[in-house]
TrEMBL record:
Keyword entries, A-Z: Hydrolase
The species this protein was found in: Novosphingobium nitrogenifigens DSM 19370
GO molecular function: isochorismatase activity
PANTHER family given in the database record: ISOCHORISMATASE-LIKE DOMAIN-CONTAINING PROTEIN, PEROXYUREIDOACRYLATE/UREIDOACRYLATE AMIDOHYDROLASE-RELATED
Entries under InterPro entries matching the protein: Isochorismatase, Isochorismatase-like_dom, Isochorismatase-like_hydrls, Isochorismatase-like_sf
The name this protein goes by in its record: Isochorismatase hydrolase
CDD domains from the UniProt entry: cysteine_hydrolases
Highest taxon in the source lineage: Bacteria
Gene3D superfamilies for the chain: Isochorismatase-like
Keyword Acyltransferase assigned: no
Pfam families associated with the record: Isochorismatase
Residues in Isochorismatase-like domain copies: 22-208
Length: 216
């Protein structure tokens, strides 16, 4: 499989990521998705790469706060009664009934993992993949005059991908931080980044985002 670095990346971001018009969107850095003690970790999923991704996201959060960039935290928050019929049916038909039970409110799995919102940040609770679907994220961003999103999180092929595509559909300029995202499989990570790069976003790296905001 080709290396992610073979995909086109933008390094010079100073003209693109003006702090007053940009938000850092942190997608689903939660116990169930990123921690060894969460649901996926309990099934034996290796969270080593997730820990590295959270390190990089923490670095970008610090740079964003220093530069005055809005930070938004996206979080899946579910209850049994909020599971859609489509979700339950899909899970049953693929032979994994009950597999939708992730990020249940009150379980601890829905909690943020190693990241903490502060007053003034955007917080979005969602039921599914896209951070825009069924939420007021668009309105909150517009109210702040934001037109550009720097997107990072878990997983590249699911909630990061869905959020990025919807950002494009909502007329935001989308940048996906390739080394601050991960998927549960290198093939999925690469394929998702390639698809987003082809269709709806520019790829960049953590160090280049931090450098742009350090100069702001």
């Amino acid at each position: 499989m080709p290396d992610v670095d073979s995909l086109p990346h933008v390094a010079d971001l100073a003209d693109y990521l003006a702090p007053s018009r940009t938000a850092l969107i942190v997608v689903d850095i939660q116990v169930d998705f990123a921690s060894a003690r969460g649901v996926l970790g309990g099934y034996g999923v290796d969270m080593t790469e997730a820990e590295v991704v959270v390190d990089r996201i923490e670095e970008m959060i610090a740079a964003a706060r220093k530069a005055g960039v809005t930070v938004g935290f996206m979080r899946v928050m579910t209850r049994p009664e909020t599971d859609s019929d489509a979700l339950r049916t899909w899970m049953a038909r693929r032979g994994t009934p009950g597999g939708e039970a992730i990020c249940r409110i009150g379980s601890g799995g829905e909690a943020y993992y190693r990241v903490t919102p502060e007053p003034g940040d955007i917080e979005i609770e969602k039921l599914a993949y896209s951070s825009f679907h069924g939420t007021d994220l668009d309105a909150q961003l517009r109210a702040r005059g934001i037109d550009t999103l720097v997107i990072a999180g878990i997983s590249t092929d699911c909630c990061v991908d869905s959020t990025t595509r919807d950002a494009f559909h909502h007329n935001f300029h989308a940048f996906v931080v390739s080394d601050a995202c991960t998927a549960y499989g290198d093939d999925l990570h690469y394929a998702a980044l390639k698809a987003m790069s082809l269709h709806c976003a520019l790829l960049t790296r953590t160090a280049d985002v931090v450098a742009a905001w350090d100069k702001a």
